[in-house]
Amino acid sequence: MVAKIGDHVHTNSNSYLVKDSIGEGGFGIVFKVEDSTGQIYALKMPTIHLQLPQERPQILEKFRQEYEIVKKLSSSKNPNIVPVFDYGDLNGNPFMIMEYCPNGTLEDFIKKGCDKFTLKRTIKQILNGLAFAHQEGVIHRDLKPENILFDQSNNAKITDFGIAADIKNRKTKRNWLGMVEEVFATVTYSPPEQTDSRQAFHVLETNDIFALGVIMFELITRGQFPFGSLEDFSEDMAKYQKRKEKGDWDRNKLYSYNPDKEWIEIIEKCIAPKPSDRFQNAGEILAKLGDLKYTSKINLNKGSNFLAGTWILEVATGEEPGREYFLSNLSKAKDNRLLTIGWLDPQNPFVNDIGLTEKYTQYISRKHATLEIERKGNLESWFICDGQFYTKNNLNAMHPSTNGVLVNAKKIQGYSPLHKGDVITIGDTTLKVNIKQFF
Fold first, then answer.
1. Which of 284, 299, 314 is the last residue of a domain?
2. Are 289 and 216 in contact (CB under 8 A)?
3. pLDDT over 90 at 176, yes or no
4. In this structure, are 348 and 386 located in the same domain?
5. What's the CATH number where 206 sits?
6. How confident is the model at residue 180 (pLDDT cuts 50, 70, 90)?
7. Separation between Cα atoms, residue 4 and residue 236, nearest integer Å
8. CB within 8 Å of 202: residues ≥ 6 apart
9. Do the domain assignments include residue 73?
10. Hey, is 53 helix, strand or coil?
């Protein structure tokens, strides 16, 4: 059941009156609501009744995961991420309560055009939100103008973080050969690897960087796209994809709007065909724009990784966002320097020391990764290796996983040292390395 104007909906902590409809898409609807104190919010709920019955359980689960992930991001009060405040259920259809942003979307903003000062201010605000989310291990995966809202003070705020892609099943299902069978994406903003069946299951920061480059182009050219229009895509999808793969975008169209040189250089690097040739994170672009608040992850990882405290892996995105694995405690309980990570088999849940839940895809190997600890007194250092040590084809050795392990978006070879703040990608699950100190 979907809410209607005039309805009262309830959560455990509050009651909300549905005042108006803000917008509707293929997978959800957003209303303007008022709580019992007169405070205005936005209410978002999936249009579950419009989905196929067999798809509904996954959509409901992913919607809850979206809430949990954004709730964690909200705790930082980052000014450029739309926060969530409450969660409820209306006759089996869940909803979340979010900040109400009354000044429309970036899509509306693009049509009006903007001066150079507003352009830079808006892009820096979007980058600030992305940089924080990326450092928390959260990739948006569906960044586009409709997902960037403006609050009462015309500050840009990102919404629909990451799980929108899951609800749309864009991250796809994979067959027994490890290939993606279907790919769903907002094609004008998606990088070439996201529509490549061999690479689509790796969703990294550089995916969002590519999408942001397209948005920058669109802002400057007042609604045009670098690789061709939507009509061009509809007429010849394969040709459109080839242009992306070759980096064949319309530079003359961008030049005709006479943008500052820094925007040309930034867009060029954002929408490079190869992920390795792009800016690797939002902080690098902010630095180029003169904002040093966020530094490169390379700089964050300098220095010794021997630290005191309890080392923890926290699920940032995946089936169980917010779940924590206390590595130091696990190692001591096992009396073993090694911990294994792999797919959580419901029939045999203790095969790995850390079992990662994955119900709807097949990205995580049963024997995916190995963690190893080194101790110096009360100091600890942790390393991660792709694969596990076991016998396969009569060979007793360290066998790599099917899809590899990435640390800060880079595929590792051999044992890689971990540092506080690192983000590990295993399949479509990201885990952030934290260290808690107890005094």
1. 299
2. no
3. no
4. yes
5. 1.10.510.10
6. very low
7. 41
8. 193, 403, 406, 425
9. no
10. helix
pTM: 0.86
Neighbouring CB atoms inside 10 A of 24's CB total 12
Closest CA to 427 of 301, 293, 317, 274: 317
pLDDT over 80 (residue 90)? yes
The H or E element that residue 286 is part of is helix 282-288
95 and 179 housed in the same domain: no
Residues 139 and 276 in one domain: yes
CA 217 to chain centre: 22
DSSP label at residue 102: T
1 in any annotated domain: no
Say if CB 127 and CB 209 are below 8 A apart: no
Do residues 338 and 370 make contact, with C-beta atoms less than 8 angstroms apart? yes
Query: Could you say which of 243, 267, 299 is where a domain stops?
Result: 299
Domain check: are 266 and 178 in the same one? yes
Tens of pLDDT, residues 326-363: 999 999 999 999 999 999 999 999 999 999 999 888 88
How deeply is 300 buried, as exposed, middle or buried, from its count of CB atoms within 10 A (0-12, 13-18, 19+)?
middle
Rounded percentage of the chain residues whose pLDDT exceeds 70: 89
Compute the distance between CA of residue 6 and CA of residue 9 in angstroms, rounded to an integer: 10
Is the residue at 250 inside a domain? yes
**Can you tell me the distance from the alpha carbon of 406 to that of 398, in angstroms, rounded to the nearest whole number?**
17
Q: What value does the mean pLDDT take over residues 252-280?
A: 95
Q: How far is CA 126 from the centre of its chain?
A: 14
CB-based contacts of 39: which residues, under 8 Å, 6+ apart?
Answer: none
**Mapped to the 3 state alphabet, what secondary structure does 383-420 carry?**
EEEECEEEEECCEEEEECCCCCEEECCEECCCEEECCC
Q: What average pLDDT does the segment 177-206 reach? A: 66
* Gap between the Cα atoms of 365 and 367, Å rounded: 5
For the stretch 294-311, pLDDT in tens is 554 444 444 567 888 899
Burial of 166 from C-beta contacts in 10 A (0-12 / 13-18 / 19+): buried
Q: How far is CA 169 from CA 92, 180, 237, in A?
A: 21, 12, 20
How many other C-beta atoms are found inside a 10 Å radius of the C-beta of residue 411?
13
pLDDT at residue number 200? 57
Local structure of 63: helix, strand or coil? helix
Spatial distance between the Cα atoms of 378 and 270, rounded to a whole number of angstroms: 43
Q: Residue 374: enclosing H or E segment and its boundaries?
A: strand 369-376
Clarify whether residues 88 and 132 are in a common domain: no
